[in-house]
Amino acid sequence: MYLHKELETMSRDEINAYQLEKLKSTITHCMNSPFYKKRFNQEKLSADSIKSLDDLRRFPFTTKEDLRATYPFGMAAVPLEKCIRLHSSSGTTGNPTVILHTRNDIEAWADAMARCMYMVGMRPNDVFQNSSGYGMFTGGLGMQYGAERLGMLTVPAGAGNTKRQIKFMKDFGTTCLHAIPSYASRLYEVMKEEGIDPRRDLKLRVLAIGAEPHSDEQRHRIEDMLGVKAYNSFGMSEMCGPGVAFECPEQNGMHIWEDYYIVEIIDPVTLEPVPDGEIGEMVLTTLKREAMPMIRYRTRDLTRILPGECPCGRHHKRLARMQGRSDDMIILKGVNIFPIQIEQILMRYKELGSDYLITLNREDINDSMTIEVELNQLFTDDYGRLQSLTRDITRELKDEILVTPYVKLVSKGSLPRTEGKAKRVVDNRITH
Ligand code: COA
Ligand code: AMP
Ligand code: ZN
């Protein structure tokens, strides 16, 4: 039931004592990072400032902007020759973010991921298939290393090629799968088209779903369709990737591994802690990271800590489903997109005006993004020119945001005007 019994079943007092010690050593280690050294010296903070866990609040937050400003290696707390991997976010218009890993970081990440998998019943005799993108998406290699650490037979199928994914599941007897919720639904639809009944023809039994917000209803629907138990999986590249928090067999909140992270929930406006159980922005401090420790990182994810003890015997706090974001990041098909990335590309075209609207839709099984953008002047009689312009813009956007949007050029003045701040994004997908 427990892969790391001692760590997983620590009492609250034991967790606090463990965290206090690790926090002090993390702050000491942060002094090797040019970024943190400067910041902590400015604020006259050091490991000596930490007498109890509450003293963490004296430290400033770390933000995505800090990551961008120190791109690519300005936050590293070890020399580059100690790093063996980096993961970087998309984005060519602004500075992307870079997360560095030492060998120990990768090992610790694999341990955390294997712990999550073991918790929900994955075992070495299972066949594990991963439908995440590999490469820079941490859901690829993160899940892969965890599954290998556990000793499962792994099928690193990667994203897309749905028919081939299904053939793999059938031929290799896949029992455990990682897929984002919207793609799990797509898999089922294509199975139906192929005449495959997952309950009859496949051996699937455990599904890890995450990377995008989804409701409990959506989870139940996926479980019914595929005949599996589905467990919510939370992670983010800044904290390594998947393996930060994961549902236990109780399926009632995700245990955040408190031997790896200190979690705080704050009001995103006042930046003060919210009372226990209330929704706010999650802030995380790493306790084991070598290459890039993070102190009070503002995740921008909105959630709350579930009150009470979990019957599974783990005292690590439980996070409720993510309720959205405190910034304007969009998650589509498991890919993170900021509207500014889109805007910066659109504004390069002299043929376009400055009004645009991004609409996210879920039609049957496909999530999609439509970008309507106003032309500067009317080209309606020049259909060929409009078509080639649409093609160019689509291609450039796909390079930037990694998913393919539907681009519609519309006449000037035809998009709805809003009072005050323009509404740029309409999300018609139902996720809560
Ligand atoms: N995971 C796996 N496959 C996905 C997917 C996802 N999140 N989203 C879409 N796909 C599949 C589609 O079903 C399609 O395959 P099919 O036609 O054989 O069914 C194929 O990928 C291309 O998708 P499409 O929507 O036509 O293309 P796009 O250009 O808009 O998107 C992707 C490109 C799929 C490559 C991009 O969305 C992607 O890489 N998504 C995966 C992100 C990921 O792994 N995130 C995990 C983070 S932990
Ligand atoms: P990335 O850094 O690409 O792995 O993306 C991390 C972001 O994906 C998080 O900050 C969340 O916004 C989102 N995310 C990851 N897991 C989940 C989940 N289980 N539910 C909802 N959103 C998630
Ligand atoms: Zn539990």
Describe this structure in words.
With 432 residues, this protein is an alpha/beta fold. The chain folds into 2 domains: 327 residues, Rossmann fold (3-Layer(aba) Sandwich), CATH 3.40.50.12780; 102 residues, ANL, C-terminal domain (GMP Synthetase, Chain A, domain 3), CATH 3.30.300.30. The protein has 12 helices and 21 strands. The strands form 5 sheets. Strands 4-3-5-6-7-8-9-14-13 form a 9-stranded mixed sheet, with helices on both faces. Bound molecules: coenzyme A, adenosine monophosphate and zinc ion. Zinc ion binds next to loops.
* Gyration radius over CA: 23 Å
Residue share in helix: 25-40%
The CATH class name of the largest domain reads: Alpha Beta
Q: Name the shape in a single word.
A: globular
**Main β-sheet, in a few words?**
9 strands, mixed
Could you tell me which ligands this complex binds, including any ions or cofactors? coenzyme A, adenosine monophosphate, zinc ion
Widest sheet: strand ordering = 4-3-5-6-7-8-9-14-13
Looking at the overall shape, the CATH architecture of the largest domain is: 3-Layer(aba) Sandwich
CATH topology of the largest domain: Rossmann fold
Which class of secondary structure composition applies to the elements?
alpha/beta
Could you give me the name of the CATH homologous superfamily of the largest domain? Answer: ANL, N-terminal domain
Number of strands: 21
N-to-C CA distance: 31 Å
Number of helices: 12
Low-pLDDT windows of residues: none
Overall average pLDDT: 95
User: What is the number of domains?
Assistant: 2
Which band does the percent of strand residues land in? 15-25%
